[in-house]
């Protein structure tokens, strides 16, 4: 990780990134402000830090990636986070997406399946003073002991919508999840209207690393 220094140059690069995200169709001022506030270069390895404000996904080790800023913005906008929402994030990764949710006022529970990433990100966000609640394990099963959640966001590509996640959503809650094959997935927004009624909306294609685990890719 790089020295945690946020300069005028970085702030300028963030402003340009926010402008680009706006041009690409992101409308939520709260989401854009969170991206404008959070130094994405803090979440990068020093060798790649100069690329932190490009609208691209980058490797974070262990074969995983920090999602493209547009993807983070798109998923977060669909999630419609309100201050105080209890949000479950599947796939902690670098901690960037979870930190954006925290800046929006959510109580964030984040679960990661890769032991090394889990340890590293938990330690790093502790140092940054970002108080996510971290869990290690198979997020395709959710976190039953912490359910129900107002919102659930899955940041890895799933083969199906895991029933466990729908079960752990409050009535009125929202699940945002990319579903498809191992290479490309359609972004889905599922709103739980009642215990038996789910409204499904489909959006563009994205390319995520696979969601592993019992209700993911084995
Ligand atoms: N949200 C992350 C960020 O802001 O950097 C990016 C996530 S990365 C695209 C996908 C993450 O999902 C990886 O860290 C991967 O290890 C994790 N993952 C895959 N399957 C998982 C599972 N069943 N439970 C929890 N995490 C999982």
TrEMBL record:
The active site is at residue 67. It comes from Mongoliitalea lutea. One of its GO terms (molecular function) is protein-L-isoaspartate (D-aspartate) O-methyltransferase activity. This is Protein-L-isoaspartate O-methyltransferase. GO terms for biological process: methylation; protein repair. One of its GO terms (cellular component) is cytoplasm. InterPro entries: PCMT, SAM-dependent_MTases_sf. Belongs to the methyltransferase superfamily. L-isoaspartyl/D-aspartyl protein methyltransferase family. Its main location: cytoplasm. It catalyses: [protein]-L-isoaspartate + S-adenosyl-L-methionine = [protein]-L-isoaspartate alpha-methyl ester + S-adenosyl-L-homocysteine. Pfam families: PCMT. Catalyzes the methyl esterification of L-isoaspartyl residues in peptides and proteins that result from spontaneous decomposition of normal L-aspartyl and L-asparaginyl residues. It plays a role in the repair and/or degradation of damaged proteins. It is found in: Cytoplasm. It comes from the Bacteria. Keywords: Cytoplasm, Methyltransferase, S-adenosyl-L-methionine, Transferase. Its EC number is 2.1.1.77.
């Amino acid at each position: 990780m790089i020295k945690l220094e946020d300069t005028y140059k970085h702030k300028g690069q963030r402003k340009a990134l926010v402008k680009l995200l706006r041009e690409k169709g992101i409308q939520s001022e709260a989401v854009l402000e969170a991206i404008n506030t959070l130094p994405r270069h803090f979440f990068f390895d020093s060798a790649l830090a100069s690329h932190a404000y490009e609208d691209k996904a980058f490797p974070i080790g262990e074969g995983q990636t920090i999602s493209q800023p547009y993807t983070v913005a798109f998923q977060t906008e669909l999630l419609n986070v309100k201050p105080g929402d209890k949000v479950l994030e599947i796939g902690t990764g670098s901690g960037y997406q979870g930190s954006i949710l925290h800046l929006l006022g959510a109580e964030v529970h984040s679960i990661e399946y890769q032991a090394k990433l889990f340890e590293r990100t938990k330690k790093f966000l502790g140092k940054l003073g970002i108080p996510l609640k971290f869990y290690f394990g198979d997020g395709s099963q959710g976190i039953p002991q912490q359910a129900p959640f107002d919102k659930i966001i899955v940041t890895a590509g799933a083969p199906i919508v895991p029933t466990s996640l729908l079960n752990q959503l409050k009535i009125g809650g929202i699940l945002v999840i990319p579903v498809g094959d191992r290479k490309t997935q359609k972004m889905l927004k599922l709103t739980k209207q009642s215990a038996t009624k789910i409204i499904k909306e489909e959006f563009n294609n994205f390319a995520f690393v696979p969601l592993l685990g019992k209700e993911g890719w084995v």
